[in-house]
């Protein structure tokens, strides 16, 4: 089964990742055992992930959905992974040298060049499956080197929620000069996140 989400749902997924709520007043509550759930209406969180029910049914007696699949069996119910739980306010933007790791679960590598604490409202509310930053992100480089990738972490700087490449005129995040010097002021004036199905 392949699920294609509407622009509204894709926008809600982005809002969920940043703010912790699935838009339009729908909230993803913690997974509950042996509970009836409804396709494309029921949402849950489990193990730091957010899921949308794609096949109505009854959840299992224990466990719940896990992983990042698109057809996760949970007794007679099925779920699709939407993303990780909310990044939340006070998120950190980290820049490293080298190539980005295989995924967010892989330990960071390279030299940490800068850690920026993002504004309380990191991104504007998503629409049409995309979200842009709400204000300029600023900070100062703490080490010298050429930025190769970034990571967006939660406020405690323990959970990686997003990563991407950095380049000069290229990459997921582009700088006019990706070679940082100690004490250099950094400004991110534009950054757009697009849901995978947009």
Q: How many individual domains?
A: 2
Q: What letter string, H or E per element, gives the SSE order?
A: HEEEEEEEEEEEEEEEEE
Q: What's the rounded overall pLDDT mean?
A: 81
Outline the biggest β-sheet: 6 strands, mixed
- Assembly level: single chain
Structure class: mainly beta
Characteristic key phrases:
about 200 residues; mainly beta; 2 domains; six-stranded mixed β-sheet; 1 helix; 17 strands; about 5% helix; about 40% strand; elongated; disordered N terminus
Report on this structure.
It is a single chain. Strands 8, 9, 12, 13, 14 and 15 form a 6-stranded mixed beta sheet that branches. A 5-stranded mixed beta sheet has the order 1-3-4-7-6. It has a two-stranded antiparallel sheet with strand order 2-5. It is mainly β and 198 residues long. It is built from 1 helix and 17 strands. Strand 6 (72-74) and strand 7 form a beta hairpin. The longest helix is centred in the N-terminal third of the chain and has 13 residues, at 7-19. It folds into 2 domains: 21-84, no CATH class; 92-194, no CATH class.
